[in-house]
Design brief:
Elements lengths: L1 E10 L2 E10 L4 E5 L21 E5 L19 H14 L5 E6 L1 H12 L4 E7 L13 H7 L4 H12 L2 H6 L18 H13 L13 E6 L8 H9 L3 E6 L6 H4 L1 H13 L3
Parallel strand pairs: 3-4, 3-5, 5-6, 6-7, 7-8
Antiparallel strand pairs: 1-2, 2-4
Length: 273
C-alpha cells in the first residue's frame, strides 16, 4: 500500500511537521536535510526512493511547516534535532529505520546513531563532518562570498558551491536553477542564526566510536563547503564504516548526480535486507 501523508509530531517545546511517502510494508528510510532547509531538500532524490522505502522526513524547527517561537530554548543543538527525529520515527509507527543525513543532516544523523542506537539500522552520511578538533572547516575564501551584501552575488556563490558550472548552464543559468537546496526562504532570521550555530557547534568526534550501525560515508571530491577530507576523518572515527567519493561532485553532489549517488546508497542499504 503506497501512501503520501503529512502530520505533526509533538516534540519538546512544541511540534514539528512530518511527511511520509512510500509503501507501508517497506523498510523505513529517514531523510535528514541540510542547514536552513525543510523536507523540500529531497525534491529530486525522494522519487528515486519511494518505490523501495517508506520515506520519512520532517521540517526542522524554524523551517517549513514546523512550529517555532523565540521561547523555544536559548540554543538548538544537533542532539535536540536528533531527539526530534526519534520522536518523528516513533510517531509514524517505526521502531527502527535506515538513516540518510546530508550536510547538517549528517551531523544530526551522527547524534541519532550515538544516542538512539536501536533506532538506526544502517547509516549513510553525505557531505558532512564530525565537528570538533578533527574536522576540517571551510576556508575564509568560501565564507566571504556567502556574506557579501549583494544578494545576487551571494546566490551565485551558493549555487557554485553546490553545483558544477555545467549543471548550472544546462538549467539556464543562476536564476533558473532549482532552489530546493538553497535554503528555506520562509525562515525567520533568528531561526537561520540558530541553524548556523547548531551546525558550527556540532562536535561528535569523541563519541563516534559509539556508532553501532554499519555506515556509508559519501562525499564529492570538489566540495568546498565541507572539505572532502572530512569523509576520511569520519571513517577513522566510526567503526564498520566505508567511504565512496564522487569525482567532480560539489556540496550538492547527491542531488546533481542523484541517480548514481542514490544507487550507491541503496546498494549499501540492500546488504541489510
Amino acid at each position: 500500500m503506497t501512501i503520501a501523508l503529512k502530520g505533526r509530531t509533538a516534540v519538546a517545546g512544541g511540534w514539528v511537521a512530518h511527511q511520509v511517502e512510500g509503501d507501508l510494508r517497506a523498510p523505513a528510510l529517514l531523510l535528514l536535510p541540510g542547514q536552513a532547509n525543510s523536507h523540500q531538500w529531497w525534491t529530486a532524490v525522494r522519487p528515486l526512493l519511494t518505490g523501495r522505502f517508506f520515506t520519512v522526513t520532517f521540517d526542522y524547527r524554524g523551517t517549513g511547516g514546523s512550529a517555532w517561537s523565540a521561547a523555544d530554548g536559548p540554543d538548538w543543538t544537533a542532539r535536540l534535532f536528533a531527539d526530534d527525529a526519534a520522536a518523528v520515527l516513533r510517531a509514524v509507527g517505526r521502531d527502527s529505520a535506515y538513516v540518510y543525513g546530508t550536510s547538517m543532516g549528517g551531523r544530526i544523523a551522527q547524534e541519532l546513531a550515538i544516542n538512539y542506537p536501536g533506532l538506526v539500522r544502517r547509516l549513510v552520511l553525505a557531505c558532512t563532518s564530525p565537528g570538533g578538533g578533527p574536522a576540517t572547516e571551510r576556508g575564509n575564501d568560501v565564507r566571504r562570498p556567502l556574506a557579501d551584501p549583494d544578494p545576487a552575488k551571494r546566490h551565485r556563490a551558493l549555487v557554485d558551491l553546490f553545483y558544477t558550472p555545467e549543471w548550472t548552464r544546462a538549467r539556464g543559468g543562476y536564476e533558473q536553477v532549482p532552489a530546493h537546496l538553497l535554503g528555506d526562504r520562509s525562515m525567520p532570521p533568528e531561526a537561520r542564526r540558530r541553524h548556523l550555530r547548531l551546525s558550527a557547534g556540532h562536535d561528535a568526534a569523541g563519541r563516534l566510536h559509539q556508532v553501532q550501525a554499519p555506515t556509508l560515508i559519501t562525499h564529492g571530491d570538489e566540495d568546498r563547503l565541507a572539505p572532502p577530507v572530512n569523509a576520511e576523518t569520519l571513517a577513522r572515527l566510526i567503526p564498520r564504516s566505508e567511504v565512496r567519493i564522487f569525482s567532480g561532485g560539489r556540496h550538492g553532489f547527491f542531488d546533481e548526480f542523484a541517480e548514481p549517488a542514490t544507487k550507491t546508497m541503496t546498494d549499501f542499504l540492500a546488504a541489510d535486507q
